[in-house]
């Protein structure tokens, strides 16, 4: 029957038009997306990865032998790895000044022994990005990270210390990731 052939050809034409519209829209939007940490240069000629590699991390001021000194070293190492893979800044254009402080509190206490069973360890980090050429502070912000941990029974006293250190290390990594993302945002948008 001729009307069946006509309906089939109309359906085929509609499908071809829809496919053409979809392919046309996809071709217009194909060049709009670029990975944030990709190796392809952005509009300014440098990728975000290159910009982050030009950030010099200043030594974090702490007193030797304190728990804050361990946190400061961990923060410096995590940021160094996040920004440029562990190598130092080649030709630094910016300097990152950081201060780190330790926080913590007890969430639960065992009523029979009076010892904590669940605690929270955390870090508070204030940082500012300084343009080396002018000495101008271009970004000033702060972040924090809190991580919980469980304290095993009273007969395992060193396990509590290890659990606290592991929680602090996780908090440091979380804060370092937040700082890296904030710096990437600054280099992309300028704010």
Note down, in words, how this protein is organized.
The chain is an alpha+beta fold and 191 residues long. The protein folds into two domains: 1-33; 48-189, Double Stranded RNA Binding Domain, CATH 3.30.160. Helix content is 45%, strand content 26%. It has four helices and four strands; from the N terminus they run H-H-E-H-E-E-E-H. Strands 1-2-3-4 form a four-stranded mixed sheet. Helix 3 (67-84) packs across helix 4 (157-189). It is flat and about 85 Å long. The termini are far apart. The model has no long low-confidence stretch (mean pLDDT 82).
Q: What is the CATH fold-level name of the largest domain?
A: Double Stranded RNA Binding Domain
Spatial shape: flat
Topology pattern, helix = H, strand = E? HHEHEEEH
Largest sheet: 4 strands, mixed
Outline the low-pLDDT stretches.
none
In what order do the strands lie side by side in the largest sheet? 1-2-3-4
Strand coverage percent? 25-35%
- What is the structural class? alpha+beta
- Give the assembly state of these chains: single chain
Radius of gyration: 27 Å
CATH homologous superfamily designation of the largest domain: Lipoprotein like domain
Under the CATH scheme, the architecture of the largest domain is: 2-Layer Sandwich
Distance between the termini: 67 Å
Query: How many beta-strand segments?
Result: 4
Domain tally: 2
Mean pLDDT: 82
* Number of helical segments with 4 or more residues: 4
The top level CATH class name of the largest domain: Alpha Beta
């Amino acid at each position: 029957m001729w009307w069946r052939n006509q309906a089939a050809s109309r359906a085929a034409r509609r499908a071809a038009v829809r496919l053409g519209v979809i392919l046309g829209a996809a071709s217009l939007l194909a060049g709009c997306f670029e990975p944030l940490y990709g190796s392809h240069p952005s509009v300014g000629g440098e990728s975000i990865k290159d910009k982050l590699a030009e950030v010099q991390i200043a030594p974090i001021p702490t007193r030797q032998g304190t728990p804050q000194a361990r946190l400061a070293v961990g923060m410096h190492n995590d940021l160094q790895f996040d920004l440029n893979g562990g190598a130092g800044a080649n030709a630094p254009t910016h300097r990152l000044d950081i201060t780190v402080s330790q926080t913590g509190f007890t969430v639960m206490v065992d009523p029979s022994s009076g010892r904590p069973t669940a605690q929270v360890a955390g870090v508070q980090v204030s940082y500012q990005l300084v343009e080396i050429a002018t000495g101008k502070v271009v970004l000033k912000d702060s972040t924090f990270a809190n991580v919980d941990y469980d304290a095993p029974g009273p007969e395992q006293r060193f396990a509590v210390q290890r659990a606290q250190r592991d929680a602090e290390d996780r908090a440091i990594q979380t804060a370092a990731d937040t700082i890296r993302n904030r710096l990437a945002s600054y280099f992309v948008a300028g704010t």
